[in-house]
Each structure stands twice: as C-alpha cells, then as structure tokens.
Amino acid sequence: MSRRVVVVGNGMVGARLCDEVRRRDPDGRRVRLTVLGAEPRPAYNRVLLSTVLAGGLTPRAVELYPGGWAARRRIDLRLGVAAVKIDRSRRVVLADDGTEEPYDELVLATGSRAHVPAGPGFEHATAFRDLDDCAAILDRARPGTRFAVLGGGLLGCEAARGLAGRGTRVTLLHRGPHLMERQVDAGAGHVLAATLERLGVEVRTGVRALGWEPGAGLRLDGGELLDADALVVATGVRAETGLAHDAGIATDAGVLVDDRLATSDDRVHAVGDCAQHAGAVAGVVQPGWEQAAVLADLLTGTDPAARYRGTRTVTRLKARDVDLATVGDPALLDASSLRFSDPASGRYAALAFRDERVVAGAVLGLPDAAATVVQFFDGALPVAEGDRLALLLGRALPGAAETADPGRLPSSAVVCRCNTVTKGALITAWRAGATDPPALARATRATTGCGSCGDTVRGICSWLAQSDPIESDPPVLSAVREGAA
Ligand SMILES: Cc1cc2nc3c(=O)[nH]c(=O)nc-3n(C[C@H](O)[C@H](O)[C@H](O)COP(=O)(O)OP(=O)(O)OC[C@H]3O[C@@H](n4cnc5c(N)ncnc54)[C@H](O)[C@@H]3O)c2cc1C
Fold it and tell me: What is the pTM of this model?
C-alpha cells in the first residue's frame, strides 16, 4: 500500500520535494502525493524575482517546471488552495475550499512571509516576496518615479539596484549602521554603499522610518519627510509557522525539526524556509533543496538512514555590476583578519581564518578571488599563512586551481551552489551525453537556482568540448579509436 503524503506549500522547496520523491518513485507505487498551494500559479523560482524586477527575465521564464508537469508525475496539485488547520488526532488537513485531506505523512513547506514594520501607512507599502509583489512594483517603475526602498539587506540592495537600472530615482534606507550587516563587515558594507551610489542609488544608513504617507512620502525619525511616490519594504522575513503552532507542534523562529526533518510530531515534517534545524532558520534555497532530497529518501524508503546535517551557505548578491559573495559569520571578522580595500574601484575583501581555514569572508568586486575563497570555504581547504594574499588575488594555490580557468577547477569544486553540483558531476553528465549547457542543466540541475554559475557551466562545457575529444566525438569516430587502441 502506498503512503499518502500531503505537502503544504508549492514553493521552491515543496515543489522540489515532489520532484525528488518522483525521481525515486516514478510510478507512485510507494508514495501518493497531494500538494496544497496557496499561490494560484505553478511553482516558480523565487530567487530570480530580483532578476525579473531588474528586467533580465520575464515572469514566465522563472517557472520551475513545464506546464502539465505535476499531472504527468502523478502529483495531485491543488493551486490556490490554502491549508487552514491540521487535525493531528484524525490525521487530516483542512483546506480553505472546505475539503479535508487525509495523510499518513504531512510535510510543511510553507516558506516565509515578508515582515512589514509596525507604523502608520506601512500596510499600503509593497513587500518583495512573490510574483504579485513584483508585478505591483513594476507597475509603478516608470523612469523618474521616486522609490523608497526600506531595508538594506540582500533583497533591499537587489531591489534598489534593479529599480535604478529601470531609470527610477531610488533611495535605499537602512536602519543598521551599514548595509547587509548580517552578512558582511562594516568595510564591505561601506564599499557596497559606494558602489550602489555610483549606480544611481542614494543610500542612507542609520535611519529609522516611522510611517508611510501615500501621496507624500516616508516619515523618518527626527521628523524629515522623504519625498517618494512608492515604497518597497524589504525588512526581513518571518518563517510561516502558524499552522504548526496552532496544531500544538513545537515552533520557535521556525518549525523545529531534527536531522530526519521530523517535527515534534513524527508524522509531520518541515522543510525549507519554515523549518528551524539546529537552531537556525535558513532563509536561502540551498538548505531547503538539500532537506528535500533527504526527506524524499526517507518518505520513499530509498535510504532510511538519510539524515540532514546542515549546509555551509554562501550568499551572493544578484545585481548587475555588483559582484558580492559572502561566506560564514561576519562576527568572526576581527582585527586579525586579512583585509583589502579599494573603495574608489568598488573592490573590497575581508577574510577570517581559524586553523588555516577560511571561516568567514566578504569579497566585493573581485570575482576571481570570490570564486577561490568559496572553493576554499566549501572544501575547508587549508591556506598556509604565506598564501593568504594569493587567495585574495584569486591566484592559483596548492590544493586548488585558479578558478577563472574552469579546466583547472578540481573535480570536487561545487559549481552550482543552489543544487550542490560539482564539476565532477558535470563531467559525468557530459560523458553520458549532456553536451551543451541546457542539457547539462536538465541532467544535473546546475544553473537552475540563482543562475550565478551560468558562466562557469558554459566555461566547463567549452573546456570539455576541447579537452575531452574522444567522449565528444561522434559515436562512429569513437568506435574507430577504441578499435585502434
Ligand atoms: C526577491 C527574492 C530573492 C531571493 N534571492 C535568493 C538568493 O539569491 N539565493 C537564495 O538562496 N535564496 C534567495 N531567496 C530566498 C528563497 O527564495 C527562499 O529561500 C526559498 O523560496 C524558500 O523556499 P520555500 O519553498 O521554503 O518557501 P517559498 O518559496 O516561500 O514557498 C512557500 C509556499 O508555501 C505557500 N504557503 C504558505 N502557507 C500555506 C498554506 N497554509 N497552505 C498552502 N500553501 C501555503 C506560499 O504561498 C508559498 O507559495 C530570495 C527570496 C526573494 C523573495
């Protein structure tokens, strides 16, 4: 008998979980899947909303799966239907269309919602979380419109850059002492602000907004009224924990889960932005996708020993002409850290080491160095004291190759962070016949997350076409060579 699994949430992680389950159980013999999705549209790549806002992609282009995908995969997908209550004693989920969905296992993949600060008028501001928000912002984004973007974290910076690129007049306001203080140190924050200013964004830090006065502007601490026609709020997110909490399941900042992604009720699981694992709510997609793979192993019985042990996350800002990568906790950057700063050219790097390993860092405007640093952070590779400067310069070091040259990347290097795809996996897929970037994307999923690895994947593809001639020969020629050998 197949298990009835109900997934609540058809976002990036809920949809991915279904995909992972069907990769292991294509005919649905082991798992029957029902998905309740509050949004009225098929799953899309939320990470790419900043690119949609900046004009680099259409909303259609960010759909995660082709039309009819769910039906072909035997997934009962119910769009525009929200779960409103979990009745754990009867093991049913109640939906807002009046239906009840019985489950053997329930998965919460409810993501997070935008946090809107308290204050008069903020309820009329636009958040930046879904495609409807994106459409509402774009509706106002005509050249000359004055936008205030509240919140100088990753999303606020991306939104401000995208809007400035559309010819609007943008002021980015941040309450903290410098931009992105959760990810970068003060030095990187200041250079980032200068870079955004050069790109047409006015940046103001250390300011508090008290309220939004539609038609007038943004009221600031101290009484100033900032002229603005539209307000975008990007002041953080909160995990969507309401359903679990109301059902008596343990929650904190997220729904508490163990290494099996089980909540305090063994029949109920949580993955993605709504889950809190080992004290942390991730808020980025890579951990959620790794959790989905582990949970699919468990739900299908493919690997009953599968466990999620956490993810080493790397953050990248996705904005044209701003190249920022961060790793680890910025609190670890201190006076003993290695620093390079050239604000005039928008370049900055800070790296903290423990036991000869990179444990935290921010690299801005130095893409080669960023790639090398990420590689060393990922692999926990040792950097001898004398080699640290070379690391910042993006030069080849013992243990890793110069990353600007895809051919010299080690096989173990993670190329696509969102999907944890190594160069070795790309080579294997190439040799199995995926010999162009779209085919590599289909085979390995590389490039299908934030897309920032696109150049590297294309580089590896060209390198393979030149350096792997036997494998890329037409079959007849390969056979001739094998015969000759
Ligand atoms: C503009 C933007 C840029 C981002 N950039 C990056 C980035 O560069 N890198 C990165 O890693 N991450 C980024 N993120 C974060 C990333 O999008 C999230 O980590 C990811 O979407 C989490 O996936 P999820 O499925 O857990 O949640 P979501 O994608 O939010 O999906 C949750 C879904 O559940 C639905 N839902 C909620 N409650 C219910 C209910 N009761 N019943 C039915 N359905 C329900 C919601 O409507 C939603 O569709 C970005 C986010 C935004 C908004």
Answer: 0.88
